[in-house]
């Protein structure tokens, strides 16, 4: 029987939660393909990992590992916001979605989004939202999202 996580090129992918050992599997370098990460020491990584862990299921980071190479090749995160509107409803905020440049076009990005959406649903969210560039709009539409409103931002330097 075909392995549902294999892409037929002898690569086996595992979708799972971020683990503390993932720093040495290239997790920060992967995020560096999305934006500036700066240098993150092992101590800083461990401290931030513990801090995020203390939020339990309210902050989930999904990764996909190429198990043969022990390399993190895709990731995305979601934070669950607790609100008063919609009968004290919850909203999932999806962030930091990136697939390693050598692994794009293999449905891994979609797998990350599906995983995060399942998490939002299981947490009782009434919606999940994210911001993206125009060039990624078609990808998110393939993942079942629709364009809504416009994004506003203010950066604090
Ligand atoms: C955007 C990104 C996450 C997509 O990941 P991916 O693994 O290559 O995408 P998938 O293989 O899962 O694609 C799923 C579907 O979306 C389509 N798709 C993916 N990227 C697309 C794009 N830029 N434009 C149009 N369609 C796209 C695929 O063709 C595929 O369609 P299919 O199911 O009909 O075959 C990846 O290109 C990436 O990491 N880019 C750089 C970082 C980034 O911009 N992240 C998003 C931040 S908002």
UniProtKB/TrEMBL annotation:
Subcellular location(s) of the protein = Endoplasmic reticulum membrane
Q: Which Gene3D superfamilies does this one have?
A: 3.40.630.30
Keywords, ordered alphabetically: Acyltransferase, Endoplasmic reticulum, Membrane, Transferase
- InterPro entries from the entry? Acyl_CoA_acyltransferase, GNAT_dom, GNPNAT1-like
Instruction: State whether keyword Kinase applies.
Output: no
Any single biological process term in GO: N-acetylglucosamine metabolic process
Tell me, in one coarse class, where this protein mainly resides: endoplasmic reticulum
The reaction(s) annotated as catalysed by this protein in its Swiss-Prot or TrEMBL entry are: D-glucosamine 6-phosphate + acetyl-CoA = N-acetyl-D-glucosamine 6-phosphate + CoA + H(+)
Gene Ontology molecular functions: glucosamine 6-phosphate N-acetyltransferase activity
> Is the Transmembrane keyword given for this protein?
no
Domain N-acetyltransferase per the UniProt entry, residue ranges: 13-157
Annotated pathway:
Nucleotide-sugar biosynthesis; UDP-N-acetyl-alpha-D-glucosamine biosynthesis; N-acetyl-alpha-D-glucosamine 1-phosphate from alpha-D-glucosamine 6-phosphate (route I): step 1/2
Per the UniProt entry, the Enzyme Commission number(s) are 2.3.1.4
Regarding the membrane, this protein is recorded as: Peripheral membrane protein
The record's GO CC annotations read: endoplasmic reticulum membrane
Family note = Belongs to the acetyltransferase family. GNA1 subfamily.
Oligomeric form and interacting partners: Homodimer.
Q: What name is this protein filed under?
A: Glucosamine 6-phosphate N-acetyltransferase
